[in-house]
Amino acid sequence: MAxxxxxxxxxxxxxxDGDTVAMEGFTHLIPHAAAHEMxxxxxxxxxxxRMTPDLIYDQLIGMGCAKRLVFSWGGNPGVGSLHRFxxxxxxxxxxxxxxxxxxxxxxxxxxxxxxSGLPFAVLRGYAGSDLPKHNPRIxxxxxxFTGEQLAAVPSLRPDVAVIHxxxxxxxxxxxxxxxxxxxxxxxxxxxxxxxxxxxVVDSLDADPNACxxxxxxxxxxxxxxxxxxxxxxxxYYDRDxxxxxxxxxxxxxxxxxxxxxxxxxxxxxxxxxxxxxxSETGGTA
Amino acid sequence: MAxxxxxxxxxxxxxxDGDTVAMEGFTHLIPHAAAHEMxxxxxxxxxxxRMTPDLIYDQLIGMGCAKRLVFSWGGNPGVGSLHRFxxxxxxxxxxxxxxxxxxxxxxxxxxxxxxSGLPFAVLRGYAGSDLPKHNPRIxxxxxxFTGEQLAAVPSLRPDVAVIHxxxxxxxxxxxxxxxxxxxxxxxxxxxxxxxxxxxVVDSLDADPNACxxxxxxxxxxxxxxxxxxxxxxxxYYDRDxxxxxxxxxxxxxxxxxxxxxxxxxxxxxxxxxxxxxxSETGGTA
Amino acid sequence: MADYTxxxxxxxxxxxxxxxxxxxxxxxxxxxTAANLARLTHAPESVLIYESGPxxxxxxxxxxxxxxxxxxxxxxxxxxxPEIFRYWLQGGRIDVGFLGGAQIDRYANLNxxxxxxxxxxxxxxxxxxxxxxxxxxxxEVLIIMNQNTRAFVDKLDFVTTAGHLDGxxxxxxxxxxxxxxxxxxxxxxxxxxxxxxxxxxVTDLHPGVTADQVREKTGWDVRFANDVxxxxxPTPNELTVLRALLKRTAEAHGSAS
Amino acid sequence: MADYTxxxxxxxxxxxxxxxxxxxxxxxxxxxTAANLARLTHAPESVLIYESGPxxxxxxxxxxxxxxxxxxxxxxxxxxxPEIFRYWLQGGRIDVGFLGGAQIDRYANLNxxxxxxxxxxxxxxxxxxxxxxxxxxxxEVLIIMNQNTRAFVDKLDFVTTAGHLDGxxxxxxxxxxxxxxxxxxxxxxxxxxxxxxxxxxVTDLHPGVTADQVREKTGWDVRFANDVxxxxxPTPNELTVLRALLKRTAEAHGSAS
Lengths: 285, 285, 257, 257
Known about the structure:
The complex is a heterotetramer, with two copies of chain A (285 residues) and two copies of chain C (257 residues). Chain A has 285 residues and is α/β, with parallel strands linked by helices. Helices cover 33% and strands 24% of the residues of chain A. Chain A has two domains: 3-101 and 157-279, Glutaconate Coenzyme A-transferase (3-Layer(aba) Sandwich), CATH 3.40.1080.10; 104-154, no CATH class. In chain A, strands 1, 2, 3, 4, 7, 11, 12, 13, 14 and 15 form a ten-stranded mixed sheet that branches. In chain A, strands 8-10-9 form a three-stranded antiparallel sheet, covered by helices on one side. The radius of gyration of chain A is 19 Å and the shape is globular. Chain C contains eight helices and 14 strands. Chain C starts with 5 loop residues before the first helix and ends with a helix. At the A-D interface, helix 4, helix 5 and helix 8 of A face helix 3, helix 4, strand 9 and helix 5 of D.
C-alpha cells in the first residue's frame, strides 16, 4: 500500500541529494508543489529529467538544485524562453549545468524502455540531425534481420519519479486522465515514485482501461490541492496562462527571480501558505 | 472514413488469398464471424498470426485456409487440445502447416514493433529455452551501451488485421473495452484492418483515454451482432464455455469436424443464418 | 481421517506459499485456483495479475480462460497484453510467477511444446504462452502439477521454459534475472531446489503419502531432504473457502450461454 | 485594398496547403493556428494530432500550450505521449507534419537548438522537441515562419531537424522515410524545393510583395521560379473564421485563472 503522507514527508523520505529525478506532466498535471518542496528542503546535485523543463525546472535550476539536465524542449510554452535555464547553460549561473539533450521521441522511448526493464530503446530518429554529434548517448545500430540503421538511446531509470494526478483512493491507487503524457512510463521506469493528488476519494470510479497506477508501485501519495498550478488539472482547474506570461518578467533577471523565490517559496511553510500569499499578491507578483 | 459494409463485402474486398492475417482478441472479442466468412469465401494459402490460435484458427486450419501459422500458445483454453491444429502439425492434414513458434512476450513485442514502424523488437526473452534452436527468426543482440544480451524478433507487419469490437460510431471510429489484448497493436501493425462490431451508435461516449481506434486506420467496419461467439463481448454476452467443451468432441475426428463445418458454415449464407441454425440445434451440435 | 482429496491438499499447499501482499503473475488452471484461494484466505492483499491484462483482479468465480470478463470486472485496472509483458513482467514488478506445466525435470525446467522431436512431434502440446518470460523475470516461481511419471521425467524432449537448466549457477550464467523455481507443489509432496545443485528435493510429504509413492510417480531417482516434514492438513477454513469457490465457479460456468 | 495583415495572409496561405481528410501532426503556435483554420474552413475532415496525445482534436479555441485541456476535451481519443511518437508518428500514420522553427536554411533544414557553438552558445534555443522525428516520418512537411535575415540564414549553426540536408537525394541517403519539406510559408511568400536540387525556390509572392523585399529578408541569394504566381488574397470567409478563432482564443486565455 502506498504511504499517504504530507508532501514534506514524501520529499523528505523518498527524494535525496544526488538523485536522478523525473518530474513529468506534459503541460498538464505538472507537479509544481513538489518542486517547491524540493527547493524548500534545499535538495542539491540532482539530475533532472523531463521532456519539457518548463517553469518547474527553471525554478529548480535557478535555485541551484540541479547538477545535470536531461531534456528535449526547454521553453516557456506559448511565451518564450526559460531565462534561468538559459542563464545556467549560457553563463553558468548559479553554477554550470551539464546537459544531455534529446528529441521528444527519443526521451519518450527511453522512458518506455526504462519501464520495460530494457537497457536501451530503439527508434527511427536523429537521422540528419546534429544532435548525435554532441550527445554520446545517442548511437546507431543495425536491425539483425533487415540491416536497417536505427537510433538507440539508453533507457531512463530515474531514482524517483514525481507526478501530480487528479485523485487517489485510500489505498493509494492513483487515477490520471486527459493528457496523460509520459507519466505512467516515468513512474514505472523509476525505483521510487511520489505522487501529489488533488484529492483522496473512497473509490476512483475509473473506466476499466483508464490510466490507473496501482498503489504498490507508488512510494508516497500526498494530497496537495491545486498542486499543479500554474499547470492545470483536468476536471479541477484550468492552466494559469497569465502566470506563464508573468514568469517571463519574474525570471528574466537573477535578482528579481531570487527575490520572488525567497519570498514565495523559501519564506512560505508549504504549498498552502504559498497559494495564500499568491492570492493576496494578485496571483503572480 | 471507414467503409461501413457487410462482412461479406469486407472480407471480399480487403482479405485475399496468400495474405498474412492477424485475427486477435485475447479470449475476449475473438472475431469468429469473420473467420467463418473467410471459410465460406474459401481463402487459401493464408499466413495466420495469432498469439492463441484457439478455436478460430482450429477451424481455419482444418478447412485448409492456412499455409503457415505464427503463434505462441495453441490450446483450447480450459478444455485441452486443438485437434485440427495438432492434426495439421502432427499428420499434415488437410495439408502440411508451416509453423513459426514464439512466446507470448515475443509476439506481443513483435506487434508493438510493427505498430511502431520498427523492423524488429527487443526483449528479455527466450534465455535458456529451446525455442531459438528451432526458430531462426529469434536472434540475440547486445545493448550498444551496456553490452547485455537481449533477444530480438522481427516485427509483425500483417497485410490485414481482423478484430471484433463492442461498437463503432457512424464514421467508423471503434471502441474496445475490458480485456483489450493486443488488438490496437495488431490493427496499427497491419496494412489494412477489418473490424466487426456488436453495434453502430451515434456516439461512442468513450472515456478520453479509452481504447478507441480512429476510423481512418480502419478499412471496413461490419455490424455482426454476437460476432465473437463462442468468445464474448464484454457488456453484451458471456463466453459460451459449453461451446468450447463441445468443440473438443466436434473437432476430434476429421469426419465429424468436416461434417460440422459443412453443415454450419459452408451451408449457411452468413453469420445470422449460422446463429439461427445453432440455436435450432441446441447451441453446438 | 482425510476428509479432503489429494487435489484439495495440493491446492491448499500451493496457496499457502503465496505471502500476503505478494504481486503474483498467475497462470490459468491450478495456479489460478491456488492463487485465488490464497487471496480468499491468508493473503487478502495479494495482487493477482493475468497475462490478458487485469491487474489486482479479485474474481468471485475462477476464470475458465485467461481472459474471462470476471477478471476485468473485478480488477483495479486492465491494461493491454503488450503492456503486461513489457511494463509489468519485464519491468521487474512481479514477485511470484505461478505456473503449471505438462512436463518437468529434476531442475524444474518445463516442457509445454512437444513430446518427441520438434519437427516430427509425437504429441504437439500447446506451446510456450507466457511461461518462458514469467519464469525468467518473476522474483521467484512456484510450480503446481499433478505428479506422475509422464509429467515428472528424467529428460525433457524440449525445454520450453528454463527452471534451473542443468543446475548450479546455470541460471545466472544464462542471464535469467529472477531466482527461478523455489517450490514445486504436487498432489503428493512439495519439492524445493537444493541450495547448491538446484536439483529438486522432496522437503514435504502430504499426510499419508510415503516416500515410495513419490518415487513411483517420479521419472528420475528423486532425492529427499534429511528432515522431510509432513504438510499440515487443510484447515476447515481452507477447505470451506476452496469448496465454495469451486462450487460458485461450476455454477457460473455451467450456466453460461 | 489590403484589409488584412501579413500575418493573416501567412496563416491563410498555410491553411490552404492542408487537404481535407489529411492526417496532420501539428506544432504549437503558427502551425496550430493554420491547421485549425483549415479545419474550420475547407478541411473539416482533417485529423489534427498534437504530440501531447490528442488524436482528431477539434479545439474551439487555440491551445496556448501543446497540452491544453481543450485539446483533450474535443479529441476523438487521447493517447500517451510515447504512443503518439511510437504508433502514430513512427508508425507512419501521419500525412503532413506542420512545423515552425527559429532558423531555416535554403534546404529547409531547421535550427531550434543554439545560436553559436553548441558547447558555448550565444543563444540557447528551446531544442528539438518533436521536430526531428516529425520531419523524418511525416509523409510531407509544411513549415510556417516569419521571414527575416535572422531566421532565413545562409548557414545554420546547428541542424536540429533535417529538411533536405545538402540537397539532391541527401535525404533519401540519410534514410529519412518521408518526402521532407514541400513548402515554406512566410509572411511574404511561399517557397518550395526545386525538383532536382531541393533548394528552396520562391513560387508564390503574397499580394503587394516584391521579389526585392523577399531578397532583403533572406540570408542567402534566394532563387525565384520562372513563373512566380501571386498568392490569392484571403477570402472574406477565411478572414472571418480566422479572426473569430483568434478572438475566442484571446477571450478564453485572458480569462483563465
